[in-house]
Amino acid sequence: MLTFNGCDTGFERDEYGSIISGGTIKATSVRTGDCFNDLNPEEIKELVETFKEGGDVDSVTINHVSAVPCNMPHNNEVFAVSESLFSTLDDYPSDEEFNFRAETFCIPEVYRYLGIDSGLSQSAKSKMFSDAFPEYYQYLFPRSSSWNSGNRTLSCLLYSELARESSARNLLEKR
Predict the structure, then answer these.
(1) Which residue among 72, 88, 98, 158 is least enclosed by CB atoms within 10 Å?
(2) If you ran DSSP here, which 8-state letter would residue 27 be given?
(3) Helix, strand or coil for residue 135?
């Protein structure tokens, strides 16, 4: 889980909401389809390996990220955002509660975002996804202090160790 806090500076969006010039953006301001850098690749790689091995995943605090247009090199892409997934909880969720809700939301959303045929079996969809993104995915989620202020937003991220120079949206459509 990646937790966040920070401020926006210098990036621009077009009339459709797409990032057209890079800059610093609050992690709380990312939107579906945004591409960015600045998550430390070594820390993320370690977290992903721990997650894949079934170990406890520590959180990393992310204050802001370096937003870039998706046609520029980037390691992260937001594929889904939910402001309501945790809205019914008063207390900060346990790791188990967080993981259950996040996976229940993010997994179908990543298949939809990548354009994976919904008629395929769960194992076929999972294989297509893991073949294309072996580093899997991550989340941006508020720290407990932001939670106590009412922020419950979850952002689901595709992470790629090798920088991509295009959006992953519909990448696996009709394969």
Answers:
(1) 88
(2) G
(3) coil
37 with 76: CB under 8 angstroms? yes
139: closest CA among 2, 31, 47, 28? 2
Do residues 69 and 21 make contact, with C-beta atoms less than 8 angstroms apart? Answer: yes
d(CA 148, CA 146): 5
Please name the residues in contact with 85: beta carbons below 8 A apart, sequence gap of 6 or more: 101, 102, 105, 152, 154
* Per-residue pLDDT tens over the stretch 112-151: 999 999 899 999 999 999 888 887 788 888 888 888 888 8
For the chain, which residues make up each domain, given as ranges? 2-164
In this structure, what is the dihedral angle of CA atoms 53, 4, 83, 125, given to the nearest 10 degrees?
-30
pTM of the model: 0.82
Residues 160 and 131: beta-carbon distance below 8 Å: no
